[in-house]
Structure formats: C-alpha cells, structure tokens
Amino acid sequence: MISDKSGTTFKNWLIEVGLIFTLGSIWHFLYPWSDGNKLVGYIAPVNESVWEHFKLGYYSVLLISCKDLINGGMSVNNYFLAKSIGIV
To answer: How far apart are CA 38 and CA 58, in angstroms?
Structure first.
C-alpha cells in the first residue's frame, strides 16, 4: 500500500474522494431543501452559475480536511499549507 508520513493509505484516500463526491452531491440540493434560507445560501449553491458550483467542491474538501486534522493532521509538517494548495 502507498502511505505517507501520517499513515494515510491509498485506500483511505479513495474513501475520502468518494465522500467528497457524495458531500458535493448533497450540497447541490441543500439550498432548495432549506426553502431558500439565506444562511444556507452562503455555503450552498443558490443558482446554476459556475461560481456557485465551486462551493460544492470547496466546502466538501474543507469538511474532509477538518476530519483529517482531527485524525492526526497536526503531526504532518505544513498541513495547512498543503491543504490550502490542494483546495486551490
């Protein structure tokens, strides 16, 4: 198995990619499900523009990154820099 310093395996990476796709799909419908709540509109796409669809990936990756941080991300050098570059 491929692994890095933090012990994250390729299998875990594939699971996280699946979670990002799943969260992004759920995120797509979050605003209509909330009956147009303005607070939800800050994090979920409000219309079908490209800019609004960037929220799907950004917030999904941000949630997964927070999960990684809790599960030992602080033991990796430059964790925040690497995740920030990865999100961009």
So the answer is: 19
Chain centroid to Cα 65, Å, comes to: 6
6: Cα within 13 Å, side-chain hemisphere: 17
Q: Read off the pTM.
A: 0.67
Give the integer Cα–Cα distance in Å for 49 and 12.
32
Pairwise CA distance, residues 31 & 12, whole Å: 30
Location of structure tokens 């990476």: 13
- The angle, 0 to 180 degrees and rounded to 10, between the axes of the packed helices 79-87 and 50-70 is 160
For 3-50, the pLDDT digits (tens) are 455 555 778 778 888 988 898 888 889 999 999 899 998 888 898 889
